[in-house]
Amino acid sequence: MLLEVRGLGKKFGGLDAVKGVDLDVPEGQVTAIIGPNGAGKSTLFNLLAGFYRPTSGTVTFEGKDITGMKPHRTVREGIARTFQTTKLFDDATVLDNVLAGRVVRSKSNALDAVFHTPRHRRDERASKARAMEELEFVGAAHLRDRLASKLPQEAQKRVSMAQALATEPRLLLLDEPAAGTNDEETEAFGLLIRQIVARGITVCLVEHKMSMVMNLADQIVVLDHGQRIATGTPAQIKSDPLVIEAYLGANTDQAGAPA
Ligand SMILES: Nc1ncnc2c1ncn2[C@@H]1O[C@H](COP(=O)(O)OP(=O)(O)OP(=O)(O)O)[C@@H](O)[C@H]1O
Ligand SMILES: [Mg+2]
Protein backbone atom coordinates (compact mmCIF):
# COMPACT_ATOMS: atom_id res chain seq x y z
CA MET A 1 0.00 0.00 0.00
CA LEU A 2 1.41 3.42 -0.95
CA LEU A 3 -0.48 5.33 1.74
CA GLU A 4 -2.02 3.93 4.90
CA VAL A 5 -4.16 6.11 7.12
CA ARG A 6 -5.38 4.80 10.46
CA GLY A 7 -7.85 6.41 12.86
CA LEU A 8 -7.08 9.87 11.53
CA GLY A 9 -8.79 12.74 13.30
CA LYS A 10 -8.77 16.53 13.33
CA LYS A 11 -10.73 18.66 15.75
CA PHE A 12 -11.36 22.36 15.26
CA GLY A 13 -12.52 23.43 18.71
CA GLY A 14 -15.51 21.19 19.38
CA LEU A 15 -15.93 20.15 15.75
CA ASP A 16 -14.65 16.81 14.45
CA ALA A 17 -13.75 17.87 10.90
CA VAL A 18 -12.17 14.44 10.34
CA LYS A 19 -12.92 11.56 12.69
CA GLY A 20 -11.42 8.08 12.93
CA VAL A 21 -10.71 7.80 9.20
CA ASP A 22 -9.02 4.68 7.84
CA LEU A 23 -7.84 4.88 4.24
CA ASP A 24 -5.69 2.67 2.05
CA VAL A 25 -4.38 4.14 -1.19
CA PRO A 26 -3.01 1.45 -3.54
CA GLU A 27 -0.14 2.41 -5.79
CA GLY A 28 -0.85 3.28 -9.41
CA GLN A 29 -4.58 3.83 -8.94
CA VAL A 30 -7.04 6.68 -8.65
CA THR A 31 -8.72 6.92 -5.26
CA ALA A 32 -11.58 9.41 -5.23
CA ILE A 33 -12.79 10.98 -2.00
CA ILE A 34 -16.32 12.29 -2.19
CA GLY A 35 -18.87 13.63 0.26
CA PRO A 36 -21.12 16.64 0.88
CA ASN A 37 -19.81 20.17 1.52
CA GLY A 38 -18.06 20.28 4.87
CA ALA A 39 -17.59 16.48 4.98
CA GLY A 40 -13.88 16.91 5.74
CA LYS A 41 -12.36 16.15 2.33
CA SER A 42 -10.03 19.15 2.15
CA THR A 43 -9.16 18.76 5.83
CA LEU A 44 -8.15 15.17 5.12
CA PHE A 45 -5.83 16.37 2.32
CA ASN A 46 -4.41 19.02 4.65
CA LEU A 47 -3.65 16.29 7.20
CA LEU A 48 -1.98 14.05 4.61
CA ALA A 49 0.20 16.85 3.23
CA GLY A 50 1.06 18.18 6.68
CA PHE A 51 -0.75 21.53 6.53
CA TYR A 52 -2.61 20.48 9.67
CA ARG A 53 -1.33 18.27 12.46
CA PRO A 54 -3.80 15.48 13.26
CA THR A 55 -5.36 15.33 16.71
CA SER A 56 -5.34 11.54 16.47
CA GLY A 57 -4.28 8.70 14.22
CA THR A 58 -1.37 7.93 11.91
CA VAL A 59 -0.31 8.46 8.30
CA THR A 60 2.14 6.00 6.77
CA PHE A 61 3.62 6.67 3.32
CA GLU A 62 5.72 4.00 1.61
CA GLY A 63 6.03 2.27 4.95
CA LYS A 64 7.33 5.39 6.72
CA ASP A 65 5.45 7.15 9.51
CA ILE A 66 4.89 10.72 8.28
CA THR A 67 2.27 11.71 10.86
CA GLY A 68 2.54 15.41 11.67
CA MET A 69 5.31 16.02 9.14
CA LYS A 70 5.29 19.59 7.79
CA PRO A 71 4.45 20.30 4.10
CA HIS A 72 8.05 21.04 3.05
CA ARG A 73 8.96 17.56 4.27
CA THR A 74 5.94 15.62 2.95
CA VAL A 75 6.64 17.09 -0.49
CA ARG A 76 10.21 15.76 -0.28
CA GLU A 77 8.79 12.39 0.69
CA GLY A 78 6.81 12.49 -2.55
CA ILE A 79 3.38 13.90 -1.74
CA ALA A 80 2.23 16.87 -3.82
CA ARG A 81 -1.10 18.61 -3.90
CA THR A 82 -3.19 21.19 -5.65
CA PHE A 83 -5.55 23.43 -3.75
CA GLN A 84 -9.32 23.77 -4.04
CA THR A 85 -8.76 27.52 -4.39
CA THR A 86 -5.75 27.74 -6.68
CA LYS A 87 -2.78 29.19 -4.84
CA LEU A 88 -0.25 30.49 -7.36
CA PHE A 89 2.23 33.29 -6.76
CA ASP A 90 0.28 36.19 -8.22
CA ASP A 91 3.18 38.46 -9.19
CA ALA A 92 5.22 35.66 -10.74
CA THR A 93 5.13 34.26 -14.25
CA VAL A 94 3.73 30.85 -15.02
CA LEU A 95 7.24 29.43 -15.50
CA ASP A 96 8.45 30.87 -12.18
CA ASN A 97 5.46 29.32 -10.44
CA VAL A 98 6.38 25.90 -11.79
CA LEU A 99 10.05 26.48 -11.01
CA ALA A 100 9.03 27.03 -7.39
CA GLY A 101 8.01 23.37 -7.38
CA ARG A 102 11.53 22.40 -8.47
CA VAL A 103 13.13 23.94 -5.36
CA VAL A 104 12.27 20.75 -3.49
CA ARG A 105 14.54 18.69 -5.76
CA SER A 106 17.35 21.24 -6.09
CA LYS A 107 20.80 19.83 -5.44
CA SER A 108 22.64 23.11 -5.00
CA ASN A 109 22.57 25.02 -1.73
CA ALA A 110 22.31 28.71 -0.83
CA LEU A 111 26.06 29.25 -1.16
CA ASP A 112 26.04 27.72 -4.63
CA ALA A 113 23.34 30.21 -5.53
CA VAL A 114 25.16 33.23 -4.07
CA PHE A 115 28.42 32.39 -5.86
CA HIS A 116 26.79 31.15 -9.07
CA THR A 117 28.86 27.98 -8.98
CA PRO A 118 28.82 25.63 -11.98
CA ARG A 119 26.72 23.23 -9.89
CA HIS A 120 24.14 25.96 -9.37
CA ARG A 121 24.05 26.86 -13.08
CA ARG A 122 23.66 23.20 -14.06
CA ASP A 123 20.95 22.79 -11.49
CA GLU A 124 19.12 25.88 -12.74
CA ARG A 125 19.23 24.72 -16.36
CA ALA A 126 17.94 21.27 -15.44
CA SER A 127 15.17 22.74 -13.30
CA LYS A 128 14.03 25.03 -16.05
CA ALA A 129 13.98 22.19 -18.57
CA ARG A 130 11.95 20.04 -16.20
CA ALA A 131 9.53 22.88 -15.45
CA MET A 132 9.00 23.43 -19.18
CA GLU A 133 8.39 19.69 -19.67
CA GLU A 134 5.66 19.79 -17.04
CA LEU A 135 4.11 22.90 -18.60
CA GLU A 136 4.05 21.11 -21.94
CA PHE A 137 2.55 18.04 -20.30
CA VAL A 138 -0.38 20.05 -18.91
CA GLY A 139 -0.74 22.01 -22.16
CA ALA A 140 0.32 25.39 -20.77
CA ALA A 141 3.80 25.84 -22.24
CA HIS A 142 2.61 28.74 -24.40
CA LEU A 143 1.67 30.63 -21.22
CA ARG A 144 5.15 30.47 -19.69
CA ASP A 145 5.78 34.23 -19.57
CA ARG A 146 2.28 35.28 -18.56
CA LEU A 147 1.46 36.46 -15.05
CA ALA A 148 -0.27 33.58 -13.27
CA SER A 149 -2.85 35.88 -11.64
CA LYS A 150 -4.07 37.16 -15.02
CA LEU A 151 -4.97 33.73 -16.36
CA PRO A 152 -8.46 32.24 -16.45
CA GLN A 153 -9.35 29.69 -13.76
CA GLU A 154 -8.90 26.69 -16.04
CA ALA A 155 -5.37 27.71 -17.07
CA GLN A 156 -4.43 28.42 -13.45
CA LYS A 157 -5.54 24.91 -12.54
CA ARG A 158 -3.30 23.47 -15.24
CA VAL A 159 -0.37 25.54 -14.03
CA SER A 160 -0.85 24.39 -10.44
CA MET A 161 -0.87 20.79 -11.68
CA ALA A 162 2.44 21.44 -13.45
CA GLN A 163 3.79 23.00 -10.26
CA ALA A 164 2.79 19.93 -8.25
CA LEU A 165 4.23 17.55 -10.89
CA ALA A 166 7.50 19.50 -10.91
CA THR A 167 8.13 18.28 -7.35
CA GLU A 168 8.30 14.70 -8.74
CA PRO A 169 5.53 13.25 -6.57
CA ARG A 170 4.71 9.58 -6.05
CA LEU A 171 1.28 10.64 -4.76
CA LEU A 172 -0.66 13.58 -6.13
CA LEU A 173 -3.59 15.00 -4.16
CA LEU A 174 -6.01 16.91 -6.38
CA ASP A 175 -8.62 19.00 -4.55
CA GLU A 176 -11.48 19.70 -6.97
CA PRO A 177 -9.42 19.98 -10.17
CA ALA A 178 -12.56 20.42 -12.26
CA ALA A 179 -14.41 22.93 -10.06
CA GLY A 180 -15.54 25.98 -12.01
CA THR A 181 -14.73 24.47 -15.41
CA ASN A 182 -17.24 23.70 -18.17
CA ASP A 183 -18.09 20.19 -19.41
CA GLU A 184 -15.49 20.22 -22.15
CA GLU A 185 -12.75 21.43 -19.79
CA THR A 186 -13.79 18.86 -17.19
CA GLU A 187 -13.37 16.11 -19.76
CA ALA A 188 -9.95 17.46 -20.69
CA PHE A 189 -8.91 17.42 -17.02
CA GLY A 190 -10.10 13.82 -16.85
CA LEU A 191 -7.80 12.91 -19.73
CA LEU A 192 -4.92 14.77 -18.12
CA ILE A 193 -5.42 12.85 -14.87
CA ARG A 194 -5.34 9.60 -16.83
CA GLN A 195 -2.02 10.65 -18.37
CA ILE A 196 -0.67 11.44 -14.89
CA VAL A 197 -1.61 7.94 -13.73
CA ALA A 198 0.00 6.49 -16.86
CA ARG A 199 3.26 8.10 -15.71
CA GLY A 200 3.08 5.91 -12.62
CA ILE A 201 1.88 8.63 -10.25
CA THR A 202 -0.82 7.59 -7.79
CA VAL A 203 -3.73 10.04 -7.61
CA CYS A 204 -6.14 10.97 -4.83
CA LEU A 205 -8.98 13.02 -6.17
CA VAL A 206 -11.54 15.12 -4.33
CA GLU A 207 -14.26 16.14 -6.75
CA HIS A 208 -17.96 16.98 -6.74
CA LYS A 209 -18.42 16.31 -10.44
CA MET A 210 -19.70 12.74 -10.33
CA SER A 211 -19.22 12.11 -14.05
CA MET A 212 -15.50 12.65 -13.59
CA VAL A 213 -15.29 10.62 -10.38
CA MET A 214 -17.18 7.64 -11.80
CA ASN A 215 -15.04 7.73 -14.94
CA LEU A 216 -11.65 7.92 -13.28
CA ALA A 217 -11.81 6.26 -9.89
CA ASP A 218 -10.66 2.71 -9.20
CA GLN A 219 -11.78 3.15 -5.62
CA ILE A 220 -14.16 5.66 -4.04
CA VAL A 221 -14.16 6.63 -0.39
CA VAL A 222 -17.19 8.50 0.91
CA LEU A 223 -16.92 10.92 3.83
CA ASP A 224 -19.83 12.39 5.74
CA HIS A 225 -19.46 14.59 8.83
CA GLY A 226 -15.75 13.75 8.95
CA GLN A 227 -16.29 10.00 8.98
CA ARG A 228 -15.86 7.38 6.31
CA ILE A 229 -19.28 5.96 5.54
CA ALA A 230 -18.42 3.80 2.50
CA THR A 231 -15.61 2.47 0.34
CA GLY A 232 -15.96 0.65 -2.96
CA THR A 233 -15.78 0.64 -6.71
CA PRO A 234 -17.85 3.24 -8.61
CA ALA A 235 -20.54 0.59 -9.24
CA GLN A 236 -20.69 -0.35 -5.55
CA ILE A 237 -20.82 3.27 -4.41
CA LYS A 238 -23.57 4.20 -6.88
CA SER A 239 -25.83 1.52 -5.41
CA ASP A 240 -24.95 2.00 -1.73
CA PRO A 241 -28.12 3.15 0.08
CA LEU A 242 -26.13 4.99 2.76
CA VAL A 243 -24.25 6.98 0.12
CA ILE A 244 -27.36 7.78 -1.85
CA GLU A 245 -29.01 9.10 1.29
CA ALA A 246 -26.02 11.13 2.47
CA TYR A 247 -24.84 12.48 -0.81
CA LEU A 248 -25.69 11.30 -4.25
CA GLY A 249 -29.44 11.86 -4.29
CA ALA A 250 -31.32 11.78 -7.55
CA ASN A 251 -29.29 14.13 -9.72
CA THR A 252 -25.71 13.08 -9.14
CA ASP A 253 -23.94 15.95 -10.84
CA GLN A 254 -25.77 18.53 -8.73
CA ALA A 255 -24.81 17.02 -5.39
CA GLY A 256 -23.05 19.70 -3.40
CA ALA A 257 -21.91 22.98 -4.86
CA PRO A 258 -18.16 23.29 -5.17
CA ALA A 259 -16.79 25.82 -2.69
N1 LIG B 1 -9.22 25.93 9.61
C1 LIG B 1 -10.43 25.59 10.06
N2 LIG B 1 -10.91 26.04 11.25
C2 LIG B 1 -12.12 25.68 11.70
N3 LIG B 1 -12.96 24.87 11.05
C3 LIG B 1 -12.56 24.39 9.87
C4 LIG B 1 -11.29 24.71 9.30
N4 LIG B 1 -11.17 24.07 8.11
C5 LIG B 1 -12.30 23.39 7.93
N5 LIG B 1 -13.14 23.57 8.97
C6 LIG B 1 -14.46 22.94 9.14
O1 LIG B 1 -14.25 21.54 9.04
C7 LIG B 1 -15.32 20.93 8.32
C8 LIG B 1 -14.75 20.21 7.12
O2 LIG B 1 -14.30 21.17 6.18
P1 LIG B 1 -13.60 20.77 4.82
O3 LIG B 1 -13.16 22.03 4.17
O4 LIG B 1 -12.59 19.74 5.07
O5 LIG B 1 -14.82 20.15 4.00
P2 LIG B 1 -14.89 19.66 2.48
O6 LIG B 1 -15.38 18.28 2.51
O7 LIG B 1 -13.61 19.94 1.81
O8 LIG B 1 -16.03 20.60 1.90
P3 LIG B 1 -16.20 21.24 0.42
O9 LIG B 1 -16.79 20.16 -0.43
O10 LIG B 1 -17.16 22.35 0.63
O11 LIG B 1 -14.87 21.71 -0.04
C9 LIG B 1 -16.29 22.04 7.97
O12 LIG B 1 -17.29 22.06 8.97
C10 LIG B 1 -15.44 23.28 8.03
O13 LIG B 1 -16.21 24.42 8.37
MG1 LIG C 1 -13.01 21.09 0.24
| Shape assignment | globular
Name the average pLDDT. 92
SSE string, helices as H and strands as E: EEEHEEHEHHHHEHEHEEHH
Class of the largest domain, according to the CATH hierarchy?
Answer: Alpha Beta
* Count of the separate structural domains: 2
At the third CATH level, what is the topology name of the largest domain?
Rossmann fold
Number of helices: 10
Low-confidence stretches: 250-259
Query: Structural class of the helices, strands and pairings?
Result: alpha/beta
Write the SSE topology:
Blueprint (H helix, E strand, L loop, with lengths): L2 E10 L2 E11 L4 E5 L6 H8 L7 E6 L2 E2 L5 H7 L1 E4 L11 H9 L7 H5 L3 H20 L15 H13 L5 E5 L7 H16 L3 E5 L3 H7 L2 E6 L2 E6 L1 H5 L2 H8 L11
Parallel strand pairs: 3-8, 3-9, 6-7, 7-8
Antiparallel strand pairs: 1-2, 1-4, 4-5, 9-10
Helix pairs in contact: 3-5, 3-6, 5-6
Bound molecules: adenosine-5'-triphosphate (ATP) and magnesium ion (MG).
The site of magnesium ion has 4 residues, from helix 1.
Protein name: ABC transporter ATP-binding protein
GO molecular function, one term: ATP hydrolysis activity
Keywords: ATP-binding, Nucleotide-binding, Transport
Detailed description of the structure:
Pfam families: ABC_tran, BCA_ABC_TP_C. Keywords: ATP-binding, Nucleotide-binding, Transport. It comes from Aeromicrobium flavum. This is ABC transporter ATP-binding protein. The protein is α/β, with parallel strands linked by helices and about 260 residues long. It folds into two domains: about 5-80 and about 170-255, Rossmann fold (3-Layer(aba) Sandwich); about 90-150, no CATH class. The chain is built from ten helices and ten strands. The protein has helices spanning about 40-50, 70-75, 95-100, 110-115, 120-135, 155-165, 185-200, 210-215, 235-240, 240-250, and strands at about 5-10, 15-25, 30-35, 55-60, 65, 80, 170-175, 200-205, 220-225, 225-230. The strands form two sheets. A six-stranded mixed β-sheet has the order 6-7-8-3-9-10, sandwiched between helices. Strands 2-1-4-5 form a four-stranded antiparallel β-sheet, with helices on one face. Residues about 250-259 have low confidence and may be disordered. Adenosine-5'-triphosphate binds near residues 35 and 38.
